[in-house]
Amino acid sequence: MGTNLSGGPAEAAPDVTSADDLGPAAVSRYERSSRSLKHGDTFAVFDHNGDAFSSPSNPEGIFHRDTRHLSEFVLTLNGARSLLLSSTLRDDNATLDCDLTNPALVLDPGGEVLKHDLIHVRRTRFLWQEACYERLVLRNFDEVPRRLQVELSFAADFADLFEVRGTPRRRRGTHHSALVGNARVVLAYDGLDGQTRSTTLRFDPEPQRLTGREASFVVELAPHQAQSIFIEIVCNSLEDNPHPPAFTFFLALRDARRALRYSASRAAAVVTSNAVFNEAVRRSVTDLYMLLTETPEGPYPYAGIPWFSTVFGRDALITALETLWLDPEIAKGVLRHLAANQATDFDPAADAEPGKILHEMRYGEMAELGEVPFRRYYGSIDSTPLFIMLAGAYLDRTGDLDTVRNLWPNVVAALDWIDRFGDRDGDGFVEYGSRTAKGLVNQCWKDSHDSIFHAGGNLASGPIATAEVQAYVFGAWQAAARLSRKLGHVEDALRLERRAEELRIRFDTAFFDDELGTYSLALDGEKNPCRVRSSNAGHALFTGIALPERAGRVVSTLMAQSSFCGWGVRTIAASEARYNPMSYHNGSVWPHDNALIAAGFVRYGFQAEAASIFEGLFAASTYTDLRRLPELFCGFARQRARGPTFYPVSCVPQAWAAAAPLYLLQSMIGLGFDAGRMHVTLNEPTLPPFLDEVVLKRLRVGSGMVDIALRRSRSQVVVDVLERRGGVKVLTTH
């Protein structure tokens, strides 16, 4: 995925360079209608029935630390699959609930038939502490007693996540024979990396028959009687739990819900006049907190399910920027965790250089063996300047000078990386080029192998300097200047401010193309501009590197029919040689990309255009399952009474896509903070057409808190302070 794309070996295995290269075997998630759960380093993907079927490139199953610990899990009644009634995630993502019923069943050799829709089956499932818990409740709505054969088939292939994505392997480790007890099965695998990975399944009550592939129960139900079966699936634990699964299910469910409530309680609450938008916001927030993983340094948003449920630098940094107003603790956790994993030495195999910020971290067998380079991989050109930008924004938002002081050596190391290694040829621009044949060919957020190209369609050769990376470096120097000033380094602050302004002039000279009416996509290794209209130019508005006199033309180009498809701004315009609305980066629409572009529009005073982007993405969300914005969708033009065309292997949920509506809302209402003075500011607040009122509750600044309401009044937005605690002031400018 753009930033998320852990891609795979760019030269050795181009089929995993990015998600768009997974190949024809990839299974569309919209075709499979999957349901996802996550906790910590464990995630699970099931179909709507709650089943998992292993097949090539199908991500269903239970994964822990990049290994699939359960590849098959299928429920049958008397040998037949149940019929789906409904399937949904709770609003807080705590549980997956699947309601099923029986098809018409022949019960015995004599031909007795159980009519359909007489047995109700409810599956309630959740993840907690490296385990999956399920309660299976069967209820008889027939007028006579019924005897049913309930079977659960299961398997664990222990496939590495990159195998599931389509990367072939020449050798694999050794599978153990299943260890079968009365109500317990252990499946295990010895990897080539010397690690043993195991999956333990426990059942309550004890099955009538249990093998290494199947658990079978005989359930006798009187009319209207219900019986429960509990299943516990634990990753990498061989200890025999003394408590039965019926006990551990309720204990774990209580703890899981408490943890979700506790973490989400930090967030400000959003309530608006639009009930559908309220649903979308609630899902965004609950998805974000599901994707958060507690690290030793604090909460960290994993990028997305299924392919990116791990630490990504770029994704987390942008997600933290998008949610900084909502919950600054996310940004704090991201900064501290990335600082703890900042490169300190050279490692060409990992594209690591001193001071560089992480791109991706993996724990699977293939990463441990070096079959893919992502064990701790630094092939991201923009994570380092984004790290500095986030540090500055975090201090602006919170006034937390102690945390920033502790991070300052990491900021200095990141600034040094920009100078020593980021600018490879000393021309004042930051370029990328992989140090290893297995690394990502493109290391900007559009990291597909074909995403950076010239007007004729020929691919750019490196080292490559993309437009948005220069914008991030500009933002990084400005942020570092603010940090320096707060820490008393006045001379350093002045020097960094000068460098930012010098970069702005150089950038305009080298990148702005008068004929295109926007900034070129990139400069190639020969400093020839890639004269392509792309969404990257919007990021120049986002950080403010664009000269004010250029802003209007850039906005017009991005909002022209060839770029703005009605749902959002395409990654590249329809007029370009490599335009393909079904591609990953060459014509698709990415919510996070559009959120940053809209923030740039507002920065330069183009609120109406930002509102159009907001409306388009909101309209797209009304057609999506659970109101979730996916990682991306196809860039086909919007048509009346039709929803967007979905991208087949898009990750859902995806952290920076989930955060996009929240950031769009912040941008539109001009929400800012002065933590030192305990001020909340609203600069030229505007409401998009689909919102007449927005209420923000528990908005924290410094040691205080405030609830505010924004209401449309003809052409103006009126701001009311509903409640304040701790001396917070709300300042509005029009």
Automatic annotation (TrEMBL):
Domain Putative glycogen debranching enzyme N-terminal residues, every copy: 37-231
Name of protein: Amylo-alpha-1,6-glucosidase
The keyword Transferase appears for this protein: no
Region (Disordered): 1-21
Residue ranges of domain Mannosylglycerate hydrolase MGH1-like glycoside hydrolase in the record: 315-620
Keyword terms, alphabetized: Plasmid
Pfam families referenced in this protein's UniProt entry, alphabetically: GDE_N_bis (PF14742), MGH1-like_GH (PF22422)
